[in-house]
Amino acid sequence: MTYVVTRLCRDCLDTACVGVCPVSCIYRYVGDDTEKYPNQLYIHPGECVDCNACEPACPWEAIFPEDDVPAVFAEDTALNYAMEDDEDDFEVCDEEEHEQPTPEAIETNKRKWGV
Ligand code: SF4
Ligand code: SF4
């Protein structure tokens, strides 16, 4: 199993998850095909050790264990897996300074993506 970053991360990218990952397997896309890989972070399925550290650390509630990804985000699981074929266009994300979003902002983001 792996953990999956879903589209709830898109355009948030606060990197709160990055600092807690013990194996540095959370990546940023640096290639040109931003239609295929939107502006969010990605967990490398082959490197994730299922430690669960990132899920509670994500203020946007964007990370799920693979088996618990909501059906509405099913495509995001495939997208995290797809990065294994395009590894040269990804680099390990560094943690940046970030602020905790408000509960209202988190709910608004969920509604935007149909949750
Ligand atoms: S579950 Fe653990 S190893 Fe996997 S991405 Fe999250 S923090 Fe990293
Ligand atoms: S903490 Fe969540 S929203 Fe922030 S970058 Fe990581 S996955 Fe994306």
Q: How would you describe the overall organization of this protein?
A:
The longest helix is centred in the last third of the chain and has 10 residues, at 103-112. The protein has helices at residues 54-57, 74-82, 103-112; strands at 3-5, 26-29, 41-43, 63-65, 90-92. The mean pLDDT is 96. The protein has one domain: 2-Layer Sandwich (Alpha-Beta Plaits). It is α+β, with helices and mostly antiparallel strands. The strands form two sheets. The chain has a three-stranded antiparallel β-sheet with strand order 3-2-5, with helices on one face. Bound molecules: iron/sulfur cluster (2 copies). Residues 3, 20-21, 23, 25-26, 43, 48-54 line the site of one iron/sulfur cluster (SF4).
Name the descriptors.
115 residues; alpha+beta; Alpha-Beta Plaits; 3-stranded antiparallel beta sheet; globular; binds iron/sulfur cluster
Radius of gyration, in angstroms, nearest whole number: 13 Å
**Strand content of the residues, in percent?**
5-15%
CATH arch. level architecture = 2-Layer Sandwich
Return the string of H and E elements. Answer: EEEHEHEH
Low-confidence stretches: none
CATH topology: Alpha-Beta Plaits
The major sheet is characterized as:
3 strands, antiparallel
List ligands, each type once: iron/sulfur cluster
Overall spatial form:
globular
What is the C-level CATH assignment?
Alpha Beta
Number of strands: 5
For the biggest β-sheet, the strand order reads 3-2-5
Instruction: State the helical fraction.
Output: 10-25%
Query: What is the average per-residue confidence, as pLDDT, rounded to a whole number?
Result: 96
Number of self-contained structural domains: 1
Instruction: Please work out how many helical segments DSSP would assign.
Output: 3
**What structural category characterises the helix and strand content?**
alpha+beta
Distance between the termini: 23 Å
